[in-house]
Amino acid sequence: MAIQGMRSGLAQFSGRAITFFARAVTAVRPVWQGLDPGQVRQRIYFANHASHGDFILIWAVLPPRQQQATRPVAGADYWQKGRLRSFIGQDVFNALLIQRNNGQTTTGPVDLMAEALDAGASLIVFPEGTRNQTDEALLPLKSGLYHLARQRPQVDLVPVWIENLNRVLPKGALIPVPLMCKVIFGAALHVAPDEAKDDFLNRARAALLSLKPQPEAT
Amino acid sequence: MDDARSDLLTVIAGIGGVLVFASVVGWALARRYSPQGESSAIENLNDRIRAWWVMTLALALAFLGGHVGVIALFALCSFAALREFMTLTNATRADHNTLAAAFFIVLPVQFWLVWIKWYGLYSIFIPVYVFLLLPIISALAGETRNYLIRIAEMQWALMICVFCVSHVPALLNLNIPAGRGVLLIAFLVIVVQLSDVLQYVWGKLIGRHKIAPKLSPSKTVEGFIGGSLSATLIGTALWWMTPFTPLQAAGMSLLITMMGFAGGLVMSAIKRDRGVKDWGHSIAGHGGFIDRLDSVLFAAPIFFHVTRYFWKLG
């Protein structure tokens, strides 16, 4: 009991320390484009994925009450390796860990996510499936997002564009470089009753890409 | 209490008085014209005044903390400014190690050199050593696309955000009477920032002819002349806090306001080039750190060297 309490106290402290560090490096700032941050609703945040720090930035800018209820969905292969990672993944951020095989998600994960939604959690997902290392802005989205949206059509799907974190911590780099980041939240979408899988995924992808900041033409 | 200390407290009290006055005016304006926050100009003015309180408090604490306080404060400003600048450059994944070296080696070393007063090295460390060594790290990454642009931008960022900023605390190293170095920094910051504020005020009151409409639509000839002359007058009146005579203080103030104006213009040109309105969002009402520091950045190294040369100091 005492050990449990200490562990959760340590987890809470670590959560604060990690978000403080993330803010110190990135000066991260939320931009709300068509989403009211004060409104408490169950949501699936789906974001572009370039770095292991992605969900930390989203988590850091969410209002405190929503932080508690929001669980990142992450790859078990990475977040179960070693005691520190599994402490950060499970104790600090309460991540929903998914077994991946070759980056392809099987049908199991969608059921797991639906279960977590039924328990009242909001989720952070990265539907590209893997970290994007290419020059493309966004990889094609995996179908898991569609299946999840079909299973729980009432939950808001919120596109979230994470700007610049790929430059702060590119894949393979150990030291993060301080550059300013933005987390841009778009308007919620839902899957239409008769919408085909590819149509929905294209629509979701376009919604995500539309949030990407373009240099202002002057 | 010695002279310098009591002069410093006088200066801090004076700035406090100006801010109290500004806050009362801002409050009265808001009550009269913007009770529900409907006038964005007045809300912005009050945001700015609040931010000035915070900045003044930070500066006052740093000044009272002496050498350590001033170096720590400007090292932090330098870090924040460098982060804003690097964000807008073309630096890519291939420059990751170069950027890490800039933030975690070059910046601390430069301020450490200022701390140990090694003038011979801190005045050439970034312009010579870093200039030659840093591009090697990026070259080793093997990415040639935009190479010249990338390394030139990173060098520029380091010159502006680290080299120039470090010349503010470097003023402490000049060989002037004990405790007066801090006052010299206060003089620089007060004249440069007042010049910015007064140019804005004069511009709003009688500004007609734009100086550089493409770069900075708010800068006018009338604002520039009125602002720099009135800031020079105030700087002259503050001669007692410096090692200068009133006439010398007038010349120095004019030099500072001219460089400050140039800094604002050049940094605006970079923002327009990159299609952003502000460098960042850290300081409510002002934008980023560079938005507030742009004029100080340009004035500091010149002020440092002219003072050093003419007063045969250090």
Automatic annotation (TrEMBL), chain B:
Pfam family, one: CTP_transf_1
GO molecular function: nucleotidyltransferase activity
Keywords in alphabetical order: Membrane, Nucleotidyltransferase, Transferase, Transmembrane, Transmembrane helix
Residue ranges of the TM segments: 7-30, 50-77, 98-115, 121-142, 154-176, 182-202, 223-241, 247-270
Gene Ontology cellular component annotations, sorted alphabetically: plasma membrane
An annotated GO BP: peptidoglycan-based cell wall biogenesis
Protein name: Phosphatidate cytidylyltransferase
Organism whose genome encodes this protein: Paracoccus litorisediminis
